[in-house]
Design brief:
It is built from 10 helices and 14 strands. By secondary structure, the chain is of the alpha/beta class. Bound molecules: UDP-4-deoxy-4-formamido-beta-L-arabinopyranose.
Length: about 325
């Protein structure tokens, strides 16, 4: 039996990962400062430490008896990162300095790092593989690239003393809920924003209808949060085997346009949502779809749920 520390384990994604880790027979400690995480999301059976990853002493204490860390605690709003870059560097990069220091002190042997498709910026081709150039377009994406470099560099530095086995997961567009109480409570992303607009009695907006895509709206790779959680358990198991240094995209490999998402929402709510096209939003690449060949071949993981599952479960989680 191994124990894993989940930073940000009271968040939307972290809560799903915690449940899957427990179900896999692993023990779980959640470390979360509850700034955006919710105490109610911490599952029975998980230990809980209320602390920030920036508190190196608290992290070091929480690492006692821990085999690996799944590091999800981070700021994640792209627009906010443009307005407050230092906040993102402090929390995301400073958080990594603190965590990796504590892990070195405790000789923790495994790490799964939560990265993002935002590391690719506007990709030169699609689907995009892990070896493609990293050209992030926001401070948020930059902090994720730096975090990737940090874990890789730290593993090199520790190789001859306390080896660190690591997996970086680059999430594409995460959506849906594994159960009604675990929905995404922030309205930063397309599907929650569509439901928020419907709740207000407003028409959902399509940001841009003149992109060079099959229907003119932006194409993304939406991935169900329950599939994403399963990828973390597979990554943790791979890390436990030792000597691992790997980067994986986590997506479905299938692109869906904004208009197709609107169609899926219309199907789920049983009426046309009446989406209206508005101007493009600055900084949106036309198409961002994952190549999933590597994660399928090397981790044996693939997504099981489709867009309809994501929209239906997101709807059910809104009560
Ligand atoms: C999806 C598509 C919008 C709202 C961001 C981050 C990424 C990751 C996920 C982090 C885009 C369009 C949206 C609306 C719309 N974050 N849209 N109407 O921008 O692909 O990715 O979130 O961890 O790093 O960049 O996601 O959900 O904001 O947008 O038409 O009301 O929906 O233009 O094409 P995005 P999103």
């Amino acid at each position: 039996m191994t124990r894993w520390l989940l930073t940000g384990g009271a968040g939307y994604i972290g809560a799903h990962v915690a449940l899957d880790l427990l179900a896999s027979g692993r023990e779980v400690t959640i470390l979360d400062d509850l700034t955006t995480g919710l105490r109610s999301r911490i599952p029975d059976g998980a230990d809980f430490v209320e602390a920030s990853v920036l508190d190196t002493d608290a992290v070091r204490r929480a690492l006692d008896g821990v085999t690996g860390v799944i590091h999800l605690a981070a700021k994640k709003a792209v627009g906010e990162s443009v307005e407050q870059p230092l906040l993102y560097y402090r929390e995301n990069v400073g958080g990594m300095v603190s965590l990796l220091q504590a892990m070195a002190d405790a000789a923790t042997p495994c790490m799964v790092y939560s990265s993002s498709a935002a590391v690719y910026g506007e990709p030169p081709w699609s689907p995009i593989s892990e070896d493609s150039p990293l050209t992030p377009l926001s401070p948020y994406g930059e902090t994720k690239v730096i975090g990737e470099w940090m874990v890789r560099d730290e593993a090199v530095a520790r190789a001859d003393s306390t080896p660190l086995s690591w997996v970086t997961l680059r999430y594409f567009n995460v959506a849906g809920a594994g159960s009604p109480e675990l929905g995404d409570t922030s309205a930063n992303n397309l599907i929650p924003m569509v439901f928020d607009a419907l709740d207000r009695g407003e028409a959902p907006q399509v940001f841009g209808s003149d992109y060079p895509t099959h229907d003119g709206s932006c194409v993304r790779d939406y991935i169900h949060v329950s599939d994403l959680a399963a990828a973390h358990v597979a990554a943790a198991a791979l890390c436990e085997s030792g000597g691992v240094a790997a980067v994986f995209n986590v997506g479905t490999g299938v692109g869906s346009s904004v208009l197709e998402v609107m169609g899926a929402v219309s199907d789920v709510v049983g009426r046309d949502v009446g989406a209206v096209a508005v101007d493009r939003r600055a900084g949106d690449p036309p198409e961002l779809v994952a190549s999933v060949d590597r994660i399928s071949a090397e981790l044996g993981w693939s997504a099981q749920r489709d867009l309809r599952d994501m929209v239906a479960s997101a709807s059910a989680a809104r009560g």
